[in-house]
Design brief:
The chain is an alpha/beta fold and 103 residues long. 45% of the residues lie in helices and 15% in strands. It is built from three helices and three strands. It starts with 5 loop residues before the first strand and ends with a strand.
């Protein structure tokens, strides 16, 4: 059985949105020119992410002011999950994708 590639995104104690995007860039191994916005996250998720699972840590430590940003990240990951599920049904070389939040 093929082992799943798991990426762990640790957002513990991020104080600024730029810090969240920098952790995303490093964790997902996005290039230096990553645009640090949700459109860029979507684009690079599709073009460069080969993870089967993303585990998110530390959301509960973020300021309440990031709630909309975190919801956007979840929306993007959920849409990516749906698209990968559809593609995995059509193509043998694409695995389903999942993500979860660990408290």
């Amino acid at each position: 059985m093929e082992q799943k590639k798991i990426i762990t995104l640790d957002l513990t104690d991020c104080k600024y949105l730029s810090e969240i995007h920098e952790r995303i860039r490093v964790t997902f191994d996005f290039p230096e020119w990553y645009g640090a916005n949700w459109d860029a996250f979507w684009d690079l998720l599709w073009s460069t992410c080969d993870a089967d699972v993303v585990k998110i840590l530390g959301e509960s430590t973020l300021p309440k002011s990031f709630q909309l940003e975190i919801e956007m990240m979840h929306k993007i990951l959920s849409e990516y999950k749906q698209e990968r599920l559809i593609d995995s049904d059509r193509f043998n070389d694409i695995n389903p994708f999942e993500y979860y939040i660990e408290s």
